Amino acid sequence: MLKNKWIELVLRYLIGIMFVYASIHKIAEPAEFAKVIYGYGLFPHFIINLTAIVLPFLELITGLALVLGIYPRSAATVIGVLLLMFICAISVNLIRGYEFDCGCFSFGHEGSTSSSVQLLIRDILFLICCVYLVHFRVDRKWCVGKAK
Length: 148
Fold this sequence. Notes:
Elements: H1 5-28, H2 30-40, H3 45-68, H4 72-96, H5 116-135
Helix pairs in contact: 1-3, 1-5, 2-3, 3-4, 4-5
């Protein structure tokens, strides 16, 4: 029951497509994404621009890897680590009492109607999905990084 190829496929596509979609506007507008990262108030100023450039490409590559089945366990692990970092950042700002634009799918308030608590719950659910993909990987011949 836990090792089901259809569950795995749906989770891979769901998480992969979400990360690819989330990366597109960040890649197109790195300056706006840098402002969002600055708004978290957690990072040293000298690393914000580099993070705004590198993070979206990491999201894009790992999302595509999940969708295409290229080393899906590794991609799910990287995405899980990213989600854990996002969860920590959101949690710290919730504890501080800050409501903010997470920058996940758009910049500004017109596209972000989710509260910080909803973002936290969403990321925790996606992290659980990544844990499933890492620990209950179904062996498939058509995946490049097949489990042994």
